[in-house]
Amino acid sequence: MTLVKSYCRFCAASCGTLVEVVDGRIGAVFGNKDHPLSKGFTCPKGRRAGALLQGPHRLTSSLRRSGNGEFEPVDGLAASREIGERLRRIRAEHGPDSIALFMGTQQAFTALTPFVVKSWLRATGSHKLFSTMTIDQSAKWLVPLRMGEYLGGPQPMTDADVWMLSGNNVVLTASGGDGDGPLVTDPATQIKRARRRGMRLIVIDPRRTETAELADLFLQPRPGTDALLHAGLLRILLTEGLYDAAFCDEYVDGLEELRRAVDPATPERVARECDVPVEDLFLAARMFGGDKRGRFTTGTGANFGPHSNVAEHLADTVNIICGRVLREGEPAWGGSVLMPERPAVAAVAPPRRTWESGFTSRVGGCGRLNGELPSAILPDEILMPGPDRVRALVVSAGNPMVAFPDEAKIRRALEHLELLVVIDPFLTETARLADYVIAPAMSYERADHTVLMEFFFPRPFAGHTPAIVAPPAGVIEDWEFFYETAVVMGLEMKVAGRPLDLRHKPTSEQMLELVASRGRVDVASLRGRPDGVLVPGTGAVVGPRGDDTTRLQLVPPDVLAEIRAALDDVVEIPAGGFQLISRRLKEVMNSLGRGIPGLALHDYNPAFLRPEDLARLGVRPGGGVVITSAFGSVRAVAQPDETLRPGTVALPHGWSGEVFPGARGEGANVNALTSGDEDLQTINRMPRYTAIPVTVVALGTRAGPAAGSARRSADPRRAVDDPE
Ligand SMILES: Nc1nc2c(c(=O)[nH]1)N[C@H]1C(S)=C(S)[C@@H](COP(=O)(O)OP(=O)(O)OC[C@H]3O[C@@H](n4cnc5c(=O)[nH]c(N)nc54)[C@H](O)[C@@H]3O)O[C@H]1N2
Ligand SMILES: Nc1nc2c(c(=O)[nH]1)N[C@H]1C(S)=C(S)[C@@H](COP(=O)(O)OP(=O)(O)OC[C@H]3O[C@@H](n4cnc5c(=O)[nH]c(N)nc54)[C@H](O)[C@@H]3O)O[C@H]1N2
Ligand code: SF4
Ligand SMILES: [Mo]
Known about the structure:
InterPro entries: Asp_de-COase-like_dom_sf, MoPterin_dinucl-bd_dom, Mopterin_OxRdtase, Mopterin_OxRdtase_4Fe-4S_dom, Prok_Mopterin_Oxidored. Helix 4 runs parallel beside helix 18 (478-489), helix 5 packs across helix 14 and helix 8 (226-239) crosses helix 12. The chain has 4 domains: 2-54, 2-Layer Sandwich (Phosphorylase Kinase, domain 1), CATH 3.30.200; 62-126 and 354-534, Rossmann fold, CATH 3.40.50; 139-326 and 554-563, Dimethylsulfoxide Reductase, domain 2; 572-718, Beta Barrel (Barwin-like endoglucanases). With 724 residues, it is an alpha/beta fold. It contains 21 helices and 32 strands. 26% of the residues lie in helices and 17% in strands. Bound molecules: ligand MGD (2 copies), iron/sulfur cluster (SF4) and molybdenum atom. Residues 11, 105, 136, 166-170, 172-175, 177, 204-207, 209, 223-224, 226, 299-302, 305, 581-586, 588-590, 690-691 line the site of one ligand MGD. One ligand MGD is lined by residues 11, 105, 136, 166-170, 172-175, 177, 204-207, 209, 223-224, 226, 299-302, 305, 581-586, 588-590, 690-691.
């Protein structure tokens, strides 16, 4: 047995690990105390990497659907070339836009895949690029595109006086919604340390989360009321003068319009409709506002609601009017190490309404954000007739069958494809519908570096790891699939600004050097330094504004209209009805990690309800419930949870009734309850994943119509799945 240092690649934290390698297999995984960022910290997911990589459900070979419809094993490189040939024909016959690509979550934790994937799709000439970004915190892309972006960078948590989090359970997810470093690596310790030095933490969440337990002030509003709540906070900050008037004078347009727009959000109204004590609302505004440092950042909860684009716009507006950005002469963030540095300047980049020009989809006339189309339109891109209909889809490290809204619709779409290729180490719900499943090498089986994660680190840092165990024979690395198909398709790819040599295949290590070639640290200098290296700062400071007079647009006309609509919309919950809210599980990463013995608490996702709500429904812990929305119905296993707001039910996403072939569990796909057509935001078509009106009844009881509306209840496919 040897102990080898490496780092974990299941989430952005990239914790340093000590891995037992026994006969070429992974044994126990420990935290590496010498790692300068994680200092020995790991989470249960990271510690079970051995079971994940070597467990019973891991694909040890790629698969091809044969003539009789069954999967047969196929060599990964051979399959890639076959697929390249099929893609070449589809492209020649139907044009480049008949090919689409979906980028899933796990792609982001490999250094090479995102670079190669994006340049691959660009080289095909297709515009049909989709990712989880538009079914996640999608407004985080939209807000700067409409408001403009301050280029000096945000104030960090390191020296903050106050931090406010909404809909973001960082202690469980290691995901500071805006990528604030200290909230990513070992967030509980970082928050405790910050509070010891005097930082105040405000948490807004309908659930008293693990993060809320660390807060100085906790607000537990009614789900889906974030836009109103943020407007209410802004109103107090503006009326009490708790904002940075000098910064606004210099950098902001629309302060008076903002004042008028949030005027209807009076403290009394906000307190009543959000159902929070009015004193707490004032307390939050006064604790946050004024001459302090620190930011208001949001997670998925605040980005999933019925007015998520407005909620996020107003959250960022809180930061802007309070001037919570780095000013000229302050030390710049300087965390780019393997990536090229973008100089920080105290200037504003103008809004970029990229969706208003260039390629638009025939589905709803949608345009692109940061080069991507909204994921919610992907099913219609496949299903709706039209000259550039998507016929072939490559899914890179994602599981749309459980991630997309409207489970039935995404299934229909995936089944309608001429060619579905899924690159995934597991036979997921999505992979089971594929023509080819490419089995990739997993984390400890491949070399990597931290190029794409450095943005999330609290200090400038870089790490490299070689592969520490060999992948199963015949398994390829993700990037190789794209390389091999590119060769067959004759694509000309550029990676990190340089042409990729398609005659002489580079090694993975050469590729790692290529993608980091614009950084300030050489990959070669990281090899043999398994703890990674803290990189000295550049000493750069935020540069002057110069002659530029661009200002941030607080309330462009479309945003103003959306604010009005959001503030007109009263969130009504009929008596006896519930609100379905989102939440995540500690032991799994979306759908990754299911099926590992002993990792997830159960082999299903429970429906969490308050004990008294369960009692009222006559359901025992562990008993069955039927949850019904206006769009569909699922059965789930009930679990008591005192941390919830009364009248809410939380059902984690990423599960279904059949997680892996033959492994029938009692999991429920929450996206049977969501819609891909209704309740979508403008522009980014972000679905509503929280604050969904539902009814909950004990399994075996006939369900009434869904709370809120009976749209679609006439659809027989959506009839309640009642066992009676
Ligand atoms: N263990 C683990 N870690 C993960 C993941 C995982 O599945 N498991 N997933 C990863 C991914 S892809 C992401 S995007 C991040 C997400 O990271 P987070 O955004 O921290 O995700 P959650 O833990 O679901 O936290 C969302 C919170 O929003 C609250 N909420 C629900 N509805 C509302 C609402 O209407 N308003 C407000 N204000 N809050 C609401 C929920 O109660 C919940 O506490 O986590 C990443 N890390
Ligand atoms: N109702 C509802 N819907 C949601 C959410 C919600 O909270 N509620 N959350 C949304 C959010 S924030 C997100 S990010 C999406 C998640 O959407 P997805 O990213 O589509 O879902 P994941 O389950 O993260 O899929 C990751 C896949 O990558 C595979 N994988 C693991 N390692 C590797 C690897 O090395 N290479 C490759 N090729 N594959 C690998 C895993 O087996 C898994 O199947 O779901 C969204 N959908
Ligand atoms: S926090 Fe993320 S990187 Fe760290 S051990 Fe857990 S999954 Fe791995
Ligand atoms: Mo996500």
